[in-house]
Structure formats: structure tokens, C-alpha cells
From TrEMBL:
<dbReference type="Pfam" id="PF05199">
    <property type="entry name" value="GMC_oxred_C"/>
</dbReference>
<comment type="similarity">
    <text>Belongs to the GMC oxidoreductase family.</text>
</comment>
<dbReference type="GO" id="GO:0008812">
    <property type="term" value="F:choline dehydrogenase activity"/>
</dbReference>
<keyword id="KW-0560">Oxidoreductase</keyword>
<dbReference type="InterPro" id="IPR007867">
    <property type="entry name" value="GMC_OxRtase_C"/>
</dbReference>
<dbReference type="Pfam" id="PF00732">
    <property type="entry name" value="GMC_oxred_N"/>
</dbReference>
<feature type="domain" description="Glucose-methanol-choline oxidoreductase N-terminal">
    <location>
        <begin position="86"/>
        <end position="109"/>
    </location>
</feature>
<dbReference type="InterPro" id="IPR012132">
    <property type="entry name" value="GMC_OxRdtase"/>
</dbReference>
<protein>
    <submittedName>
        <fullName>Choline dehydrogenase</fullName>
        <ecNumber>1.1.99.1</ecNumber>
    </submittedName>
</protein>
<keyword id="KW-0285">Flavoprotein</keyword>
<keyword id="KW-0274">FAD</keyword>
<dbReference type="InterPro" id="IPR036188">
    <property type="entry name" value="FAD/NAD-bd_sf"/>
</dbReference>
<dbReference type="InterPro" id="IPR000172">
    <property type="entry name" value="GMC_OxRdtase_N"/>
</dbReference>
<feature type="domain" description="Glucose-methanol-choline oxidoreductase N-terminal">
    <location>
        <begin position="259"/>
        <end position="273"/>
    </location>
</feature>
Length: 536
């Protein structure tokens, strides 16, 4: 690390991490011209066509992905899992499948029941609505005019009709809107797109203001290495940019928004965490807070994969090149068609037992063969169907690999660590297979890639342990609450220190039943509102 420290600049707020929560809170706080905000991210601008074109999701783009690995997973036969995380403006909303899901009303009422006042469904719904500009739905549950564009897909793929027919054949209800009072059923997902382009949190909350708000400063390529404290108060951030070590000072607050892996990592690097564990890395204790990095939760996910000759499934072989070229031409002219696909075009929420209060599994139906997160390629075209367990019992953790702030954290989701999760996944497998074996979907199947010989419950358990991994929804490592293992209070302020708040998915006390992008944006909206209220 060369170079000296630069002249220190001071802002009212420093936001570390430009993901879904960070962009939302920075965008909202900077609406007041008298409030200065600095937004730091280790990645780049994320404004290339690979990001803005939804089909670019299928193309490797390492500049926008931290591409973390897990430690070997005992519940997965010792396999090392993959944890892609967004890097750069927009964070994971710049590389995700753009599915717009809030979770179930029950999830937020459960948060409130744990002592988190102000986080019930009735409390958070206004912030979901405030963020949203929904072109298809309005009324009690939806917003118009917000910065986050939400609409139906423009891919025009006839697979939607076939998927809906399969749902009816399996006797599952068809659900048009997954973001109202209830979401049980199957259907077509809405996405965070605008006129056929990806609409990340950065495009919603930051990019429109870059040249207009002199009180908003965005620093890319800025890797935060330490929170600076004076007398128990967070007063700034140290970061590396290029070969220089720099500092920014915060007059009011430092706001962490690095996500479920990197917010606890930065806390620990700064001396906030379990004192004994920090001591093993030679890190002095600023404040002993044993819950930092604990309570990691993620959706364990299994993927059914089938080869198919159906012409509307995606495959990059030369045989499909003409359709790909036509798709590019249509996209340039109309911003419709193949290039607008989010791949996970259909899906929904199901109960594996009728006595359950809320759905316990979620499906993502993908118009391509997805093997090992798309990293293993196949010659055939085909389709896939994810099934994930929405509220797993297993809890994992995030720890420091070393005191090196540029090293990746140690990530242990503890997938299938609890026996109950494995049995729930067995039930989820069977429920999803009911859908896969309907006449509508059987007619598309040329070959069952991984489950043709899976018949007994033991067969199912084996294939689950061999193939389950994340569906990209890690949360909980800086959980909100008032108990001894809580890291932030219901105002999202870090316990035991001043001037430090966390605004990302790490604050979720429990994993919500669905995709986590929209809820994290909601957290950013609500945090900004709480902060503004304290400034009045």
C-alpha cells in the first residue's frame, strides 16, 4: 500500500457500500441539499452493457462480482459452496436475476414480535410502496412514482403459458401478484427493469443525481479497511483507492451497507465483535459485541435440470446463433425479446404441507440449463427449476480470514446443518417434482440430467447433499434486536458505540420468505426516514 494519507474530507454521512441498502439510504439522505453524503464502493460504475442488458446475466463479468467461496460444508458432504456478491454501484442488484419479491406479511410481523418495534408489515409497507414505480399494479399494496421501476417481463416467451398450464395440472393456484397480502401460488415474476433494461438500486437512487447533487460524492474503487473511532464514537472511514490509503470524516454518522459478509467483516477489522476472536488476529477490541458475524442465514437451494429441444430455451451454441442475433436486433429496436430475459422468468411460493401458515418453499423456473450456478456448460439446450427452503433452521457465521482488510472473509452458511432442514428440503423436492412431472412440462423434457434415478427418500437426501447450494440470499450477520447477540437496535444503530449504523440485509433478524433485494431497498428507505426524523 503505497502513498501517504490524503487530505481528509468531512461529510455529514459516509455510506460504505453502494448495494441495494447503501444506494437507497445515500440517495434519500442527499435529497436535502444541506446534508452532505459520501458513498464508497470497492467496485466500479457498473454502467456497461453487460450490466444494463438483462441477458448479460448469463455472461461472466468478474469485475462486478466478489465471487466468494464458503468453507467446506458438513451438511453438503464437505463441498465448498459459491457465494457471488455484487461489487460496484448497485451491488448485487447489478448482477441478480431482478426478481421483485418482498417476502410474506408474516416475516415482518415476526420481526416485530422479536422486539423490533417499527418493523411490522404495516410499518414497512409504506417504504416498499415509496420505493416502487410499478407499471402493472397499484392500490393498497403498490406504489407509483418511486425510483425503482417494477414491471412484467418483456421477453415475450411462450414458456409462461406452458408453466401456468403445468401449475394448473399439478393443482397449484395461479398467482398474478406475489407482493400483496399473500403470495402462495405459481406464476410469472415481476422484475426490476425499465424499458427492457436492468434497473439496479444505483440506477434508481444514485445515477440520476451524480451530476446534479453537489452534496453527493461517489467514490468507486474505494475499498474500506477500517472504521475510525474517537472516544467510542465512529468519526470516519479509512479506505484504499488505487495505491493510496485515504480517510473521510463523518460529522454525523458512518453507515455500513456492505452486505451480510462485508459489513460484519469491516466491524471486526475495526475492533467490534467477539473480543477473543479478534485477539486471535491481533486486533484490539473497540467494543466487545459477540453477535457480529453470527446468525448467518441463507436459502438452501436445489436445481432440477432438463435437456430440451424446445426452441425458446436459451443456449449459446452455434445452432442457436440465428435466434440470438434476432434477439439482439429486436432489443436494439424495441427493448423487447430474448435480451430482456432475467432467465428466472416464472416461479412462486408453495406449501409442502397444508397445515403450514405460510409457504415454506420458493421456485424459480429458469429458461436455460443451470448447473453449478451456470459455471458448468452443457452442449444441449434446456431448462431448470430451483426449489429453495424459505425459513431454514440452520445458522451459520462469517469470520475474519486474517487481519488483512483486503482478504475475503470466511463464510460458513452451515447449509443443512440442522436435520429438520434436510427433511424440509426432501418435502420441497417432492412438491417441485409434482410440477416437473405434469404433462405440460414432461412434453418439453428430452433428458433428466440429475434426478432420473432418484426415487426413495434416501435417494433424495443423497442428491440434495450432493447438489444443494445458495440461491443468493445471505442475511442476518449483524442482526437487529435487543438480546445479547443483537448487533443493531431497531433504529439500526450499532449497540455500544455512537455514530454507527448498519443499513443492509445483515440486519435482518430472520430470513424473509423470498428474494432479498426489494427488502434491502426497503431497509434503506426506512433507515433514511429514521435518520431524517432524528435530524429535525
Amino acid at each position: 500500500m503505497g502513498g501517504g494519507k490524503s487530505v481528509t474530507d468531512t461529510f455529514d454521512f459516509i455510506v460504505v457500500g453502494a448495494g441495494s441498502g447503501g444506494c437507497a439510504v445515500a440517495g434519500r439522505l442527499s435529497e436535502d441539499a444541506a446534508t452532505s453524503v459520501a458513498l464508497l464502493d470497492a467496485g466500479g460504475r457498473n454502467d456497461s452493457w453487460r450490466i444494463t442488458t438483462p441477458f448479460g446475466l448469463a455472461l461472466p463479468y468478474s469485475a462486478a462480482n466478489w465471487a466468494f467461496d464458503t468453507v467446506p460444508q458438513k451438511g453438503l458432504n464437505g463441498r465448498i459452496g459459491y457465494q457471488p456478491r455484487g461489487k460496484g454501484l448497485g451491488g448485487s442488484s447489478a448482477i441478480n436475476a431482478m426478481v421483485y419479491i418482498r417476502g410474506h406479511k408474516w416475516d415482518y410481523d415476526h420481526w416485530a414480535s422479536l422486539g423490533n418495534d417499527g418493523w411490522s408489515y404495516a410499518d414497512v409497507l409504506p417504504y416498499f410502496k415509496r420505493s416502487e414505480n410499478n407499471s402493472d399494479f397499484d392500490g393498497e399494496y403498490h406504489g407509483k412514482g418511486g425510483p425503482l421501476h417494477v414491471n412484467r417481463l418483456r421477453s415475450d416467451n411462450p414458456i409462461h403459458d406452458i408453466f401456468h398450464q403445468a401449475a394448473r395440472e399439478a393443482q397449484f393456484r395461479i398467482r398474478d401478484d406475489f407482493n400483496a397480502e399473500d403470495h402462495e401460488g405459481l406464476g410469472s415474476y415481476q422484475v426490476t427493469q425499465h424499458k427492457g433494461e436492468r434497473w439496479s438500486a444505483a440506477r434508481a437512487y444514485v445515477n440520476p443525481h451524480l451530476d446534479k447533487r453537489t452534496n453527493l460524492r461517489v467514490e468507486t474503487g474505494a475499498h474500506a479497511t477500517k472504521i475510525l473511532f474517537e472516544g467510542g464514537r465512529a468519526v470516519g472511514v479509512e479506505y484504499v483507492q488505487g495505491k493510496q490509503r485515504k480517510q473521510l470524516r463523518a460529522g454525523r454518522e458512518v453507515i455500513l451497507a456492505g452486505g451480510a459478509f462485508q459489513s460484519p467483516q469491516l466491524l471486526m477489522l475495526s475492533g467490534i465483535g467477539d473480543g477473543e476472536a479478534l485477539g486471535r488476529h491481533g486486533i484490539g477490541v473497540t467494543h466487545h459485541l459477540p453477535g457480529v458475524g453470527r446468525n448467518l442465514q441463507d436459502h438452501p437451494d436445489f436445481v432440477f435440470v432438463y435437456a430440451s429441444d424446445y426452441p425458446h430455451f436459451v443456449h449459446a451454441s452455434l445452432g442457436r446463433l440465428p435466434s440470438l442475433l434476432r434477439g439482439i436486433q429486436q432489443y436494439r429496436k424495441e427493448r423487447r425479446g430474448l435480451m430482456t430475459t432475467n432467465f428466472a422468468e416464472c416461479g412462486g411460493f408453495l406449501k409442502t404441507r397444508p397445515d403450514l401458515d405460510v409457504p415454506d418453499i420458493q421456485l424459480h423456473f429458469v429458461i436455460a440449463m443451470l448447473d453449478d450456478h451456470g459455471r458448468k456448460k452443457h452442449k444441449e439446450a434446456g431448462f431448470s427449476c430451483h426449489v429453495c427452503l424459505l425459513r431454514p433452521k440452520s445458522r451459520g457465521s462469517v469470520w475474519l480470514r486474517s487481519a488483512d482488510p483486503l482478504a475475503a472473509p470466511m463464510i460458513d452458511p452451515n447449509f443443512l446443518g440442522e436435520a429438520e432442514d434436510l427433511e424440509s428440503m426432501v418435502a420441497g423436492f417432492k412438491t417441485t417434482r409434482r410440477l416437473m412431472e405434469t404433462p405440460a412440462l414432461r412434453a418439453l423434457q428430452k433428458k433428466d440430467m440429475f434426478t432420473s434415478d432418484v426415487r426413495t427418500d434416501d435417494d433424495i437426501r443423497n442428491v440434495l447433499r450432493n447438489r444443494v447450494d445458495t440461491v443468493y440470499h445471505p442475511v442476518g450477520t449483524c442482526k437487529m434486536g435487543t438480546d445479547a447477540m443483537a448487533v443493531v437496535d431497531p433504529k439500526l444503530k450499532v449497540h455500544g458505540v455512537d455514530g454507527l449504523r448498519i443499513v443492509d440485509a445483515s440486519i435482518m433478524p430472520t430470513l424473509i420468505g423470498g428474494n432479498t433485494n426489494a427488502p434491502t431497498i426497503m431497509i434503506g428507505e426506512k433507515a433514511a426516514d429514521m435518520i431524517k426524523g432524528e435530524m429535525r
